[in-house]
Amino acid sequence: MASRDRLTVFVLFHNLGGSNPLARECLASLAHSVDDRIRFELIDDGSTDDTPQLLAEAARRLPGASVHTHASARGASAARNGALTRVETTWFTFLDGDDWVRRGYYPALLDEAERTGVPWLRVDHIATTGKERLVTRIPSGARGRVIAPREEILPGHRTTPVDFAHSWGGLYHRCLADEQIWWFPPQLRTAEDRPGIWNLHLSVDAYAISEVCGLHYRRGIPTSLTMVRDERQLDIIESMRLMGEVVARHDDTERFAPKVVRTWAGLLAFHYLNRHRLSPALRRRFMVDADALLATAPQELLAEVLTVMPESRRQSVQSLRRQAAALRATGMRPTPTPPSVAWGSTTGLENVDQVRIDG
């Protein structure tokens, strides 16, 4: 008899065992999405605690579940890329092992994806910090209808769907894995979703925003990669460079280059304002590497972007560049020097009002 499986949920865990309740809460929530059309692949990414035992026990009790184990930690990008090679169902998605979903979440998403028929179904989420819950909506003007995602990249004066870069924030058709449209740069340890989200927006013919909202995304967890204070935070710079490369490879580079540069400036300003999280050595490296990235942007375009940024963000970028120049004068160099992105002409800028990028 042919399998009825239609959706695979790849759930990534790393050192979430012991007394930590997060993985257990995640696994308990999956029990409320059991459906004979759905598989759960529980991925242990080289955990050194009792996470493997926790997942093995969960797989015995959770219908449709299996365990995939890495002998050593590969990181989120490599783990997800490996999952992409194992997609056998029509649809797939991701979930982090420290997040959780509401009752019936995945069956409801699958029903909507099958009904809508688009290759990419995006979802809102619930940002969870302690006991605080905040529904976070994708800022789309196309709710309730199908649209080409590239038509929602602009305008540049506000946050748009392309700025919501979460691998777990949607259901994906298998063709996006087979055709290598959805991928994760293996060298990135943080901000690994951004280049791929841009590629999806530029490559996928149609998407829709789901009516279902039920994924709880935990924020403020000390062990989360978004909270680490070591050199992994600097991967945001390489992520932004790769984002620019993605745009340069597609049609309409000139149309979207201003949005890319606005995103660079906004995110670098955010990280500059939070530089106190880094050691002095990493702060210096961040400023020199960030400035090297900004130097690859068309400088006239960057100047236009800075003139319309909120004052605190504009001053942050300007301070970053001044301090980077002072560091270079002492002999410090970026590591490595970023190659230039082939932007093409960037004349005829439009919709340049304000840059607001959520950090």
Automatic annotation (TrEMBL):
Pfam families tied to this protein: Glycos_transf_2 (PF00535)
Keywords in alphabetical order: Transferase
Gene3D superfamilies the UniProt entry points to: Spore Coat Polysaccharide Biosynthesis Protein SpsA, Chain A
GO molecular function, one term: hexosyltransferase activity
CDD domains per record: Glyco_tranf_GTA_type (cd00761)
Transmembrane annotation, as ranges: none
Glycosyltransferase 2-like domain span: 9-126
InterPro entries named among the record's database cross-references: Glyco_trans_2-like, Nucleotide-diphossugar_trans
UniProt cross-references to PANTHER family, sorted A to Z: GLYCOSYLTRANSFERASE, UDP-GLCNAC:BETAGAL BETA-1,3-N-ACETYLGLUCOSAMINYLTRANSFERASE-LIKE PROTEIN 1
Protein name: Glycosyl transferase family 2
